[in-house]
Specification:
Length: 146
Amino acid sequence: MLTRILILHGPNLNLLGQREPDVYGQQTLADINESLSLLAIELDAEIDAFQSNHEGDLIDRIHTAKNDGFIGIIINPGGLTHTSVALRDAISSVDLPVIEAHLSNIHARESFRHHSYVAGVVVGQVSGFGAMSYQLALRGLLAHLK
Ligand code: CA2
């Protein structure tokens, strides 16, 4: 069976590489998706990446992920990490393993970023390794699925 992983990027992550490179790095979202796709091939998997600035669109993707043929999800919920009970409920409703990834170390930033609503319903969290957080999340998710 094909190992298909859904990558979800939340609000404002479409701006990567254009603003705040000191916090979020120089790579664009397209760069991140491209290198993640290459790593996935190396690891005998396949990714499909989706970014939205709209909470409901992300929730819809989570709801349909299993029927869409995905066997796991990596999500960077962006600012919704710290606000969204609805996103947390969607993640806990889906019968798939989910990993939370962040470019920056949310625990070393402003106190309002220290709490993640989704942390309690994911397999694990990777935070603070820049674009590499997604790569570590993919390795962790594939190891978890084995
Ligand atoms: O570190 C992360 O990956 C975050 O999820 C990024 C979110 C932030 O609200 C979280 O606390 C941590 C922000 C994404 C916004 O991305 C931008 C990228 C370039 C320029 C401006 C915003």
